Amino acid sequence: MISSNYTISEKIKSFLYLFVLAEVVWLALTSSFHFQEVIIGISVSFILSLFLSRRYLELGLPPLSLKRVAFFILYILVLFKEIIKANFDVAYRVVHPKMPIKPGIVIIKTGLKSDIAKMILANSITLTPGTFTLDIVDDALLIHWINVRTEDIAEATEIIGEKFEKYLRVVFA
After folding, report:
1. pLDDT at 55
2. CA–CA separation, 28 vs 45, rounded Å?
3. For 17-73, what is each residue's pLDDT tens digit?
4. d(CA 98, CA 87)
């Protein structure tokens, strides 16, 4: 059951955001603007939004805004860029005759407050080859790094996590 702490405005916003998102996904997946498919998409999106808007609020996700959406898109672009860079870096280490690696475990700190924001940061780090998030404890992430460049927490945080966190801070503020 949805908590009574949510205002009517928040409930309506979450419904509308999810409806628009579901319709956009529907249109992207069907790649068709035929009248029948658009109407079915609207119907399915409406029904899904009715049920899922309650869960959206319960997850504790921040309300959507144009600024948050823009920063999330920027975050996705940065994530893809970092994944590509890390793939080339790991491939270089694999084919290099001396295999220049210095594996180790480092700690990085995060300023993110919500658990879901920390989870997204941890998964972003894990998705980039050469790093793997082992654990999250309060504001610290334990990271396995294929080539430890520094053991200093502040420097490791800057190198590994800050490129993602600066966007996630805005999205989850």
Report:
1. 80
2. 13
3. 888 888 988 988 988 888 998 899 999 999 998 888 878 777 777 777 788 889 999
4. 18
**DSSP helix, strand, coil percent of the chain (3-state; round to 5):** 65, 10, 25
Task: For 74-98, write each residue's pLDDT tens digit.
Answer: 999 999 999 999 999 999 988 988 8
| Average pLDDT score over residue span 120-149 | 93
Q: Which of 100, 145, 111, 139 is nearest to 126 (CA)?
A: 145
Residue 73 neighbours by CB distance under 10 Å: 12
The tokens of 50 are what?
């009715």
Distance CA 167, CA 76 (A): 9
Pair of tokens at residue 59: 């997850």
Phi and psi at residue 102, to the nearest 5°: -140, 75
Q: Is the pTM of this model over 0.85?
A: no
What string of DSSP letters covers 92-161?
HHHHSTT---B-EEEEEE----SHHHHHHHHHHHHHSTTEEEEEEETTEEEEEESB-----HHHHIIIII
DSSP one-letter code for 60:
T
